[in-house]
Every structure is written in C-alpha cells, then in structure tokens.
C-alpha cells in the first residue's frame, strides 16, 4: 500500500457527460484507478443556458440551479457506477466551461485522463468526438 502523500498525488481523471457511453467510461476509469491505487476524479464541464428570445421575460436559468444539477448528476453517477469499488477515493468536479478546456486543466495534474467516444463509423470503428479531438491537438 502506498503512503498517504503518494496516494494523494496519484489521480485518474475521467470526463463525464451523463450518457451511457460516459457511464461505461467511468466504470473503465474506476477499474484503472483501483488498479493504480489512485484517486478517481469525475469531471463534468457545462455551460449555462442562454436565452435568445426577443421578448422581455428572462428565460435564462439561474446559475446556481445549473451548478446544483451538475453536482447531483455526478453524485448519481458515483452512486450508480462505482458501487463495486467501495474503497476507491472519488472526487467530483463540476464547473462551468468548455469540456475540452476543463479536462485539459484537470488533466495537467492527473496521471491519466480518460474520455469516451460516442460516435461510430458506419463500418463499426469508433471515431474521436469533438472533445477527444480537441484534447489531442
């Protein structure tokens, strides 16, 4: 077993968006973090909805509602997907911003950054999504 200082420095970060593909990615990242004896960091980046209506009634959700919904989504994913790893240290990060930018920042301190893919080529090959493409540039 690693000492506490080494444990705190070892982290596997995974991008989360709530999709079934994202949940599968979380399970894969959890297994990897468990194997590495590392902390698992669930990362969700979101943007606030913006109204483009031409009338005077504000249609923009209050930012704190978005923040709370993001936190709740990560809590649900942790509960639903990580039950097989009760000893795994988990950190949740939900922040406003573009996914690639937020993941790039978190990834700077991670040992491993994991992102999933949702797009498929007609011949069955997995394609890089826009976030994965942005991260590999």
Strand content: 15-25%
Query: Unreliable stretches, pLDDT < 50, 5 or more residues?
Result: 1-7
Which outline best applies? globular
| Total number of beta strands | 4
Largest sheet: 4 strands, parallel
The percent range for helix content is 40-55%
Round the Cα radius of gyration to an integer and report it: 17 Å
What's the arrangement of strands in the largest beta sheet? 3-2-1-4
Primary descriptors:
137 residues, alpha/beta, 42% helix, 5 helices, globular
Structure description:
With 137 residues, the chain is α/β, with parallel strands linked by helices. Helix content is 42%, strand content 17%. It contains 5 helices and 4 strands; from the N terminus they run αβαβαβαβα. Strands 3-2-1-4 form a 4-stranded parallel sheet, sandwiched between helices. α3 (63-81) links the parallel β2 (39-46) and β3. α4 crosses α5 (130-136). The longest helix is centred in the middle third of the chain and has 19 residues, at 63-81. The chain starts with a helix and ends with a helix. Mean pLDDT is 81; it is low at 1-7.
Structure described in brief:
The chain has 137 residues and is of the alpha/beta class. The protein is built from five helices and four strands; from the N terminus they run H-E-H-E-H-E-H-E-H. Helices cover 42% and strands 17% of the residues.
Ordered list of secondary-structure elements with their pairings:
Layout: H1 4-9, E1 11-15, H2 20-36, E2 39-46, H3 63-81, E3 90-96, H4 99-107, E4 112-114, H5 130-136
């Amino acid at each position: 077993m690693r000492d506490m200082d080494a444990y705190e420095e070892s982290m596997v970060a995974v991008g989360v968006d709530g999709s079934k593909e994202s949940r599968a990615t979380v399970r894969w990242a959890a297994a990897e973090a468990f194997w590495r004896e590392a902390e698992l960091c669930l990362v969700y980046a979101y943007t606030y909805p913006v109204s483009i209506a031409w009338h005077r009634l504000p249609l923009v959700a209050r930012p704190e509602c978005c923040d709370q919904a993001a936190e709740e989504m990560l809590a649900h994913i942790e509960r639903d997907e990580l039950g097989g790893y009760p000893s795994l240290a988990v950190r949740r990060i939900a922040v406003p911003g573009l996914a690639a930018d937020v993941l790039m920042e978190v990834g700077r301190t991670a040992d491993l950054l994991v992102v999933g893919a949702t797009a498929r080529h007609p011949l069955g090959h997995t394609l890089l999504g826009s976030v994965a493409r942005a991260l590999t540039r």
